[in-house]
Specification:
binds flavin-adenine dinucleotide; 30% helix; 2 domains; six-stranded mixed beta sheet; 26 strands; 30% strand; five-stranded parallel beta sheet; 9 helices; alpha/beta; FAD/NAD(P)-binding domain; 369 residues
Length: 369
């Protein structure tokens, strides 16, 4: 019996679990090491903040998925890998041994880069934590009187969707508040997306009265205020940080090759470039030959080739290379039951675009829930 160990219940690993459940390998045992038993589906989180989905609708219960797939679940946080002894080291629990290992633990916004963020900002990752924090926060806002300034820092797809979702939800629940949502970002919004998408989103921000501050990196957060580039302070009763993804610090201790930002370096089969027994996918991995943005859509797409390659290696066959799509459809919910879809140079907006996104997301969730 060989042990395939999966660290993290990310988007690619839920597919691996399902696939091994449907077609089990006679002589392989699958173990998932997961820090959170309920893993969020990132595509639906802004919809959860906006009030369109319940907590259950946008989370996958890994205990049930493992039970259905015949996999063992170890509810623990991985803290390192002893590659000589082939063991995954866990926080407060005995290590788990592996013959083949795969890592899909995601990423977290780099809060350390903004002074005071760790103390004063509401972290958006782990997203499971954001779910709980958001429910508490929106509950408190129901009785808020007078000015309410909420700042989202980070103008990528996650930050843009979150700012729009927060604005929509708080206008519904904080009836006695005079709300001002601000999105502040270091460069422009949606770097790397089409100019048409920038135009549409800027127009939506203007229409909704959400203040958009581009080329305004946050430098410091204190109680009730954010300091932006140039030294100006802005009032902020709550701050959400959705800045550039950073890698888990424990990767450095594994001795595995990392990219320049500390993410696990993998080849075009998703195997580590320094250890053929270790695979990695999703945000935590960088395909050196095919670099793509750190986005859930790529983690989802890596599920099938990852499952296939883990199976091949367990059977003693060579892993197969794959090339991730270069252009992808990105649909950003605007929180108010509408959405903007963008691919290549075009962008379209409408209520039907939200229905389309909702259909795609619910369909994906149905496969794993
Ligand atoms: C607010 C917000 C909205 C977003 N919206 C979108 C969107 O609409 N579309 C899109 O494509 N992307 C979106 N993103 C980006 C998206 O969240 C990530 O790209 C995506 O979640 C990455 O998936 P993953 O499989 O790599 O990891 P994750 O989904 O982050 O999963 C990681 C898993 O690993 C577990 N884990 C972590 N560390 C450990 C450990 N040490 N030991 C054991 N388990 C561990 C976690 O519990 C979790 O289950 C959004 C991000 C944010 C913050």
């Amino acid at each position: 019996m060989r042990d395939l160990v999966l660290i993290g219940g990310g988007h690619a690993h839920v597919h691996v679990l399902k696939q091994f459940g449907e077609k089990p390998l006679q002589d392989a045992r699958v173990t998932l090491v997961g820090r959170d038993v309920e893993t969020p589906y990132s595509g639906m989180i802004p919809g959860f903040v906006a009030g369109h989905y319940s907590f259950e609708e946008c989370h996958i219960d890994l205990a049930r998925l493992c039970a259905r797939s015949g996999a063992r679940l170890v509810h623990a946080e991985a803290t390192g890998i002893d590659r000589t002894g082939r063991r995954v080291l866990l926080k407060d629990q005995p290590a788990v041994t592996y013959d083949l290992l795969s890592i899909d633990v995601g990423s977290a916004p780099n809060v350390g880069a903004i002074a005071g963020a760790e103390q004063w900002a509401i972290p958006v990752k782990p997203i499971a934590e954001l779910g709980r924090r958001w429910l508490e926060f929106s509950e408190r806002m129901k009785t808020w009187q007078g000015p309410l300034n909420v700042t989202v820092i980070g103008g990528g797809a996650g930050g843009v969707e979150l700012a729009l979702a927060i604005d929509h939800r708080l206008r519904e629940v904080a009836k006695a508040a005079s709300l001002q949502v601000t999105l502040a970002t270091k460069d422009e919004i949606l770097v790397g997306q089409a100019a048409a998408a920038h135009r549409r989103l800027r127009a939506i921000f203007l229409r909704r009265g959400i203040r958009l501050l581009e080329h305004a990196a946050a430098e410091r957060i204190e109680r009730g205020a954010v300091q932006l580039e140039g030294g100006q302070w802005h009032q902020a009763d709550a701050v959400f940080v959705v800045t550039e993804a950073s890698a888990a610090p424990w990767f450095t201790g594994t001795g595995l090759p990392l990219d320049e930002r500390g993410f696990l370096a993998v080849d075009d089969t998703l195997a580590s470039t320094g250890d053929p027994r270790i695979f990695a996918a999703g945000d935590c991995a960088t395909m050196l030959e095919h670099r793509r943005p750190k986005a859930g859509v790529f983690a989802v797409r890596q599920g099938p080739p990852l499952a296939d390659n883990l199976r091949r290696v367990l059977r003693g066959e060579p892993a197969r290379p794959f090339v991730p799509q270069r252009r992808h459809l990105s649909i950003l919910g605007t929180g108010d039951g509408r959405a903007v879809a963008t691919r290549g140079a075009w962008a379209i907006e409408g209520r039907w675009v939200w229905w389309w996104k909702d259909h795609i997301d619910r369909k994906w969730m149905r496969m794993y829930r």
